[in-house]
Amino acid sequence: MKICVAASEIPHPHGTAHGRDLWAWCGALHGMGHDVKVRVWTRTDSSPDGPLPDWATYEPVDVGTMWRAHVRALAVPRNEAALGGWRPDPEAVAVADHIWSIGAVLGHPRSVSTFHFRVLSDAWAVRRLRAHQIQTARAERRAGRHSKLLLAYSARVGRLSRAARVIPIAYPVPSESVPVVEEPVAAVMSDWSWPP
After folding, report:
1. Using CA atoms, how far apart are residues 132 and 102, in angstroms rounded to an integer?
2. More confident site: 177 or 149
3. How far is CA 114 from CA 51, 90, 100, 129, 161, in A?
4. Angle value at C-alpha 116, between 85 and 59, nearest 5 degrees
5. Whole-prediction pTM value?
């Protein structure tokens, strides 16, 4: 099967939360023999720290001045990924790995949008709603209306997404268990989009 993925994070086993899940599921599909092509775009001209896997390419996208980006976002929010001109293979399944990448796949006959979270439920949980979150919520609704399939990484997000299929996110399990420690340990689980 051909799978074309638009992503805004670098796939890496020790990268960001989005980068790690991209590494996990795309690497697994590639290992199973599927033809996986990931196009990573960013809104800056920074480049990856190390080599990308052979199934991924990287390209910065120039979104122009901030005021133009804001004006464009009023009309079509979170559409920056479409500015690079990349189009998925017509015969492939086209996946937006994150809401930031939907512009590159919407309109494709086999489009899939992936929801890592739903922005309004997260904003209400921390009692803080900002303008950029409203724009992201508009993009989520657009993805829900125009994607052929919605995927959610948790049951909570799946309940908030129209007709979403829930695929619990999973990372490779270490071959050896983590040793027990004597003193208490605390961990804060978050990513850049979800304040701890």
Report:
1. 16
2. 149
3. 25, 19, 10, 22, 10
4. 25
5. 0.79
